[in-house]
Amino acid sequence: MGTGFIDTTGRYLSLPCALNGPSELALRGESGAHGVTLLPYFEEERTPNRPDATGVFRRLTTDTTREDIARATVEGILCSMQDAVVPLENTTLQ
């Protein structure tokens, strides 16, 4: 479940959190980043609730480029945001 807050009316507000991702460098990279992937949970992840998660890059090789790393970062962040949508979809506002 995401981090939850109660507003002044007593309604529940779930807050998905996301890191700011890199930019033009990622746009120059290919979709799929040549197999490089990022699990972007570098701190206590709140949405989804994974307080013990750790971040990791996978499939780095000597051929990995800066563009691959940037692209994997953006794609990893987008996937983590998708992961955060599920708890939001299951949240019922009163």
Automatic annotation (TrEMBL):
Keywords of this entry: Carbohydrate metabolism, Kinase, Transferase, Xylose metabolism
Organism: Corynebacterium pyruviciproducens ATCC BAA-1742
Similarity section: Belongs to the FGGY kinase family.
Lineage: Bacteria, Bacillati, Actinomycetota, Actinomycetes, Mycobacteriales
Coiled coil feature spans: none
Pfam families cross-referenced by the UniProt entry: FGGY_C (PF02782)
GO biological process, one term: D-xylose metabolic process
InterPro entries documented for this protein: ATPase_NBD (IPR043129), FGGY_C (IPR018485), FGGY_Carb_Kinase (IPR050406)
Domain Carbohydrate kinase FGGY C-terminal: 29-90
Molecular function, one GO term: kinase activity
Taxonomy, superkingdom: Bacteria
Protein's UniProt name: Carbohydrate kinase FGGY C-terminal domain-containing protein
